[in-house]
Each structure stands twice: as structure tokens, then as C-alpha cells.
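Support case: user asked for a sample of complex input and structure output to validate their parser. Sending the pair below.
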Amino acid sequence: MNKEMLFTMNTAFRDEYSIYGYTYGKGAKAACIVGAMRGNEYQQIYICSLLSKRLAELESQGDIVSGKEIMIIPSLNYSSMNAGRKYWLSDDSDINRSFPGNPEGPATSRIAASLLERIKEYSYGIQFPSFYLQGEFISHVRMIRTGHESTNLANLFGLPYVLTSDSRSFDHATLNYNWQMEGTEAFSIYSGGTERIDEKSAGVAVSAVLRFLTRMGIIKYNCHGGYISTVMNEEDMVNIKAYDAGFFHKLVGINREVKRGQVLAEIIDPMDGKVLSEVIAPTNGIVFFVQDSPMVFQNVIIYKLIRKIHK
Amino acid sequence: MIETVVSVNLMVGEVLKIKKNRLAPDFPNGNEKRICLVSGIYGDELQGQYICYEVIRRIKKEYHNLTGIVDVYPTLNPLGMAAKIREIPGSQIDMNELFPGSQSGAMGEYAAYNILQDILGADFCIDIHASNLYLHEIPQVRMNDDVEDILMPYAKLFNADMIWVHPSTQVRDGSLAYELNKRGVKCFVTESGFAYKINQDYGNQLVDGIFAIMKYMGIWQGDVPEIKNSIIAHDNDIIYINSESSGIFIPRVKMFDRVNKGDELGYVVNVITGSVEESIKAPVTGTICALREYPATEEGSLLARIVVGGESDE
């Protein structure tokens, strides 16, 4: 393992701030893995730490294929993690809204530009981002439809689902989109939540990445074959919204098969404890996403269902 | 008449309401033009609060001169304004990335959808911003070059010191102004001052401009003050000056100062060593149109902008 400084800058109050990449194997730039970009992405940096440990073991056993290099960048924004903030400390900007970046612009834009310049050389890019809806997902690979995305390759992670989605306005400034534009095969992997460590989901993500690297001929690793992924459009999912605001009492979690009319959760009045409404499944299907805050606003998406599918 | 455009139950005991005040003639003929003034997409920008207040105050003082419809939406992000934060609290999402929104979306998208739907059909819209916490901006209009020809007659009446035309290729969709123009509602953005403060001089200047536009549209029959000529600047007329060191910025110039190439604009100092880390020189001759207000800097921090040349309307 080599530790490489990818970006460094002076700060006004905290000495030098540097971003590091950890490389395993030597040779062609095969795969790059990016973890936390925001200060609340604990699950994302945790998955990277597990992967680093495993890749170091594989490297010491000679199981990284000769002439292949893998880089892991566990965190781009660890100062925010230290300070308990989500975004860049000095100006609240979001690195994952700063791509492709500008080498003469503000700090997050410089980080984005510098990083993209370095990591666009890799054939495969894997990112562990957090989603704009806070909650728990079935582990999946998510791809923005750019015309460059390859769902066939995404299948090789062996996760239960590969999700494609139309790009939203802010997607154009994300790493995944710009990585794809630069010619890297880029994948976003969601496994577990964001602000809490989920060991089981982290393990699923690690296995998926190692499976993919094996199948692409980058590492030698015997692993379970995983799933033959179901490819879905995000727009085909059924969103279930909260019709009331209050405590969210979850009755059904992710990856559960549900029947039309089944009660999935209750919304409870925080003042008097009365059940304001029941959250009802509008279709048969599987719970793909459930929000994980103790309370919800009215109108927020609290569940996403994969309609009319069985486990 | 005050109307609620968006209503969402909050988690405990409160309802989020986004409101507008519709000011219309007492005896409408049904052919009135409609202008919308929107403000407060960012919870830290208070300049628009003063502008909205002052517009309503002046209209009420001479209500007989109102011959069109003025819809004032002072606070599109009321929770952000209450919490003194820029984004939507909780999700910390930038509300000005969420347009056109979604009727079935989360709170921010749902609000964005309903706001946009409410504005559609208007003849003109002004999205009133201040700057952020970091930079002081001269009163200005911002617009994209793909709608420059359509918006320029209005922008020239706005009494701003500068009209800044951006290449549309660099503008992200998702902003209110972008989505309104796409749907045929003429809209530009104005910036002035900086976050958390109200600059009454700037505010009064731009309110004069709003009344001039209203008069041009046939919405206002009262007198309007003489309107100043604005500098019209395209992107290559605006020079950015970024810090290449980290520390505290001590400016030596003021807003609107005319500077010559090589003049010292200020310096960045290292507080603990008492040394000057970087002397900031003007790379061009021009006028200071933005200046850093928040003293702490890091490598890459924007310290100032200079507008050079530009076509003056004079």
C-alpha cells in the first residue's frame, strides 16, 4: 500500500489540509474508489476502511493482479467530520456539487478539479455517496442516465438491484456524472444509510466491490457470485408520502415483501400520541427505501416500493 | 390580499406557509399585466425583505396609481430564514436547485412546484437576492445570454449599477429564474449587498427600478425617479481575484472604487506570525464590483471582482 497526497492547501486556522489516496498494486490505473465527500457520511468512510484493510491483505498475499492499480480515497472532507458539519467548513459548499471544478476557483472547486484530473485516468470509478433522501435502501448500484452508463457492467457487482435514473439539475455537478463524461465507467453504490454505521450493509458493499474487481480481472479473490441484478428505472418505483407530520413509527423495513393495503407505518401526533394516519401500501411489491428519521414532515417521501415484484 | 401558496405540516405543532401578497387595482378590467417579486429563497439573504416591504409601502401610499397586478412573495424559504441558514433546514438542500419541483416530491420539491405553478402566467418576475456571507455585491442584474434580448429592455430600467450577462452554457438548470424563462415567464435575478444585512440605499435604488419597470409594463401610473445607466458586462468583462494564500484579508479599497492595473487591493495576513502572506494587486484597470466581506480566507477564496470595460448605456 502506498499513501499518496492528491491535494493539499493551507488553511487560515488549521494548518495544512491534504487529501490522500491509498494505492494497492502497481501498474495500469484499473479502479478508483471514493468514499465520504460530506462530513456526515460515516457509513461511506467506514466501507472504505473495510475495503482498505481487505485490499492490503490481498496485496500482501500477491492477489492483486500484476500490472493493476487500485486507489481508495476514503474522505475528501474529513475536517467537516471533525467539526460535526455536513459541508465544507469555511463556506458550506458541497464538494459533490463542485465538479468538474475550476483549478483557480474556491477551495471545493479546486479540490474537485484536482481530484477529477487525477482519477479520470482510472478505467472504473466506484463511489459511495449519500442520497438526498435520508434513509435506508436495499443495497444497489445507481447510475445516472448519461448515455455512457453500462448496466451490464453494473450487474457484475452482484447486488440485488441496478437502478438508473434521469439526471436532475444538480447531478451535472456530481462526481459520478463528470466521471462518466471523462470516459470512466462510474458507479454509485448505496448500502445502508449515512449517519449511522450498518455493519451488515457495509459488508455487502465490500463484497460487491471485491466481486466486481475480481470479475474485471483486477484482483484474485474467491467470493460468492451474488445476485443476478434486477435493472430498474427509478421513475418506475412507487413513492409513498407522509400525509401527516409527526412521529414516524415504522412497522415494515426494507427488503420486505408487502401486499396492497398493508399498513407499513403510522404517523403519530407528538403532542397527544394519537395516530394521525396509517401509511398504506398502494400496491404489492418490495420495500426498497424507508426513511429513518424519528419524525417526518408532511409530504416527504417515506417509502419507495418496487411494484408487483416478488422476492 | 394575502394568500397561502404552499402549506406543509411541520413535524411538531407548526405549519410551514409560503405566502404572497397580491396587490391589484380595486376595479380590474381583466387585461392587467402581472409582475411577481420573489425573495428569500436563501434564508440568509434579507435584502429582499426590505425591497418587498418598500414596494408594498409605496403602492399602498398611491394605490390609485396601480393599474396592474403585483404579486409579492417575500419569503420562499421561511424555515431557512427563521433558522438563519441559507438552505432548507434539515435536508440542507439548496432550494434554488429544486425547480421546477414536483407535486409528489419532498417538502422542498413540493414547495418549488407550487411556487412555480403560482407564478406561471405572469408577464415578468424579479428574483431578489442579496449576496452570501462572504462577498459584498454592487446592485446588479444577472441574466443568461440566451434571454438577453428579451430581458435587456427591463434590465436597463432597473436602476442597477451593473447588468451581468452570463453564458447560458454555464448556467445550471434548476433555478427559479432559469425554469421561468424556459416556460415563457420573463425573469431576471438581482443581487446587492451581502447576507444577513439590509442596505437601505441599495434597496431604495432597486425599488425605484422596480417602479420604473412597472411603469414600462403599464402596471404603475405614478411618477418614477430618473434611472441610472448601468454598466453592461459579459463574462469576459468580469475579472475574478482569488486568494492564493490562507489567513485574514485586509482590504485597501472600497466598493465602486476605480482601480488601475497593479494597484494594491489589499493583503492576506498570517495572524500568528504577524506577516503578510500575499499582497493582492489589481490584474486589470476597472471598477470594484464585489469585495470580500468575511475576512477569513483560504486558498481559492474569492476576494474581489473587477468589472472592466463593458458597454455603458451612456
